[in-house]
Write a structure and sequence with these properties.
Layout lengths: L1 H16 L22 H7 L3 H17 L21 H16 L3 H19 L4 H16 L3 H19 L4 H16 L3 H19 L4 H16 L3 H19 L4 H16 L3 H19 L4 H16 L3 H19 L4 H17 L2 H8 L4 H4 L2
Length: 376
Amino acid sequence: MANRSYAIWALAAVVWLTPGISNADLVGYKAKPSSTILTISSIAEKMPAAPTIISYLMQWDRILSSRPQTEPEKPIFGEKPFLGEKHEPILWAMNSAAQAYSSQGQYEQAESTYLKLIEMSGTLFGEKNPKSLAYKASLGVFYTEHAKYDKAEPLLTEVLQDRRTLLGEKNLATISSMSDLVVLYADQGRYDKAQQLLTSAVKIGRPLLGDDHQIILSFINRLAVIYRDQGRYDEAEKIFVTALDSRRTKLGPEHADTVQSMNDLGMLYTKQKRYSDAEPLLKKAFEIRNTQLGEEHLATLESMYELGVLYASQNQYEKAEPLLLKAYECREKRLSAGHPATLDSLGRLIKLYEAWGKTEQAQQWRAKTTPEKSSK
């Protein structure tokens, strides 16, 4: 039985020491600070066996837990004996497995793992416990990322309300929930609600964290994204430049947040037809993401797509085509044919071939559009 305990703690240590910030970190799980941009998801993409290993470990734990014990198992490091599948290290492992499934495009497995995790954490801690709410928030974010807004909104709204009640407004977990809803509203084009909630989050967070905190800078950058998507380009540019400069200074030139600001500002310059300003930013963002995350990571695909859009906007069709084709193919595989990002890629390919005078190819790609796929 001791072998089971040590194995579970070994896996828990891997999860615990993985760099990155999650909702769980904000309610009591303290990860080691890191200067890298690696996250559990990005690591999992390079370790496709991770969900399988965790699944085997859980099966092993259940089998060993069911065996009769000749003597009580000794606690490890002064902790209470294991509670089988529902012990915290298993929950951490399941959360990592869900993120790994999602990063590898296994969305049904990811969703079922999140749902099981929420059920188990509710049983172990109580449904309104901050730890249980963190897992609910993770599922809500997962739904937003995959455009399942009808599932995401009630879940994220519930988590925000419960965190406000349990933890108060001036709490990082509550602020994180506000941010999650801002992303949801912005993705749906509900900019007034997004901006209102974002303004409130910044007002609460600034006195707690300071102007140059990573979370506050993410809020500032998100506000610029909202302005850009509303066509308020001059306002957006000022904020993007401020966020990018602050992130470079605070986090480093190749941090994930800094690269996101580079990509966002490059997108703005493309929309403004300032192509000479846009290209170095978009190329650098793509190069960093491709090197650090891999060619098929969703962030890399975002940069790949935007670089293709830039070239297409300049009538550099031969340079744009391979980028836009690859972005579409990978987004369809990773997200689904009907995801908004995939549909954006499809629409851009149709425009590319129309502008290029390749009518036959444009018609072939247009044939992929159906009422079912184009509904959001």
